Amino acid sequence: MTEETLEIRGFRIFKGYLDTAEQAALVEAIRGVVRAAPLFSPMTPYGKPMRVRMTSAGRYGWVSDRRGYRYEERHPEGMAWPPIPGEVLAVWGDLVSHARMPDCCLVNFYDADARMGMHQDRDEADFSWPVLSVSLGDEGLFRIGNATRGGKTESHWLQSGDVVVMGGDARLTYHGIDRIKPGTSMLLDAPGRINLTCRVVD
Ligand SMILES: O=C(O)CCC(=O)C(=O)O
Ligand SMILES: [Fe+2]
């Protein structure tokens, strides 16, 4: 159900890709992931807590602590990550590839005052695979920068149901979430935003 597709600096933004029922089904599936692998608050390698809480599904999950950013086969509490929900894989299949499925679906939960600083996603082995992002819940202000840190940026409010494909030259472009706008979606029971990013890891 894509309403329109935008392209900003090579980021393909499918506005309203998921309808309300599809969004609700994804939220249910993610609740299952969180029951199996609870959200945790990662530390940056510099010892500062990250503002988002996160968990993962798939063969690998993304973690961060004093030892650095990396993928691990186990949650910090020791359990294996649950499988990536079929609803998420379906979006990947439609927009990226049927030939290879992602190894990791990172789940980021933003509460009303969470944000994510500008960064590149570069812990994966093969940058020819895009990162696919799904937004659920309150709107988030997505900032898109450049191939190196700094410089002029462009921003776009990501809404519930929007899907972004970050591939090609945009794969290593800096990006982040400046803030969310609590109360802009009724999808979740409380203010907040969920973002899913699917990644091919190795
Ligand atoms: O929350 C978002 O929309 C982006 C998340 C992100 O960039 C990441 O998890 O690497
Ligand atoms: Fe990212």
Q: Low-confidence parts, pLDDT < 50 over ≥5 residues?
A: none
Strand content: 35-45%
* Second CATH tier, the architecture: Sandwich
Global geometry: globular
Biggest sheet: strands side by side, in what order? 1-2-11-8-13-6-3
Average pLDDT confidence is 97
Find the count of extended strands (DSSP E, 2+ residues): 13
Bound molecules: 2-oxoglutaric acid, fe (ii) ion
Question: By CATH's scheme, which homologous superfamily applies?
Answer: Alpha-ketoglutarate-dependent dioxygenase AlkB-like
Tell me the radius of gyration: 15 Å
- How much helical structure, as a percent, in the residues? 10-25%
Distance linking N and C termini: 31 Å
What about the largest sheet?
Answer: 7 strands, antiparallel
Secondary-structure element series: EEHEEEHEEEEEEEE
Number of domains: 1
Highest-level CATH class: Mainly Beta
CATH-derived topology: Jelly Rolls
Binding site for 2-oxoglutarate: 108-110, 193-199
Organism: Roseovarius atlanticus
Keywords: Dioxygenase, Iron, Metal-binding, Oxidoreductase
Binding site for substrate: 62, 69-71, 123, 149
Structural account:
With 202 residues, this protein is mainly beta. The chain has a single domain (6-199), classed as Jelly Rolls, CATH 2.60.120.590. The chain contains 2 helices and 13 strands; from the N terminus they run ββαβββαββββββββ. The chain has helices at residues 20-36, 86-95; strands at residues 4-8, 11-15, 53-58, 61-65, 68-72, 104-110, 116-119, 131-137, 139-144, 154-158, 163-166, 175-181, 193-199. Strands 1-2-11-8-13-6-3 form a 7-stranded antiparallel sheet, with helices on one face. Strands 7-12-9-10 form a 4-stranded antiparallel sheet, with no helix packed on it. A hairpin with a 2-residue loop joins strand 1 and strand 2 (11-15). The longest helix is centred in the N-terminal third of the chain and has 17 residues, at 20-36. The protein is globular. It starts with a strand and ends with a strand. The mean pLDDT is 97. The site of fe (ii) ion has 3 residues, from loops.
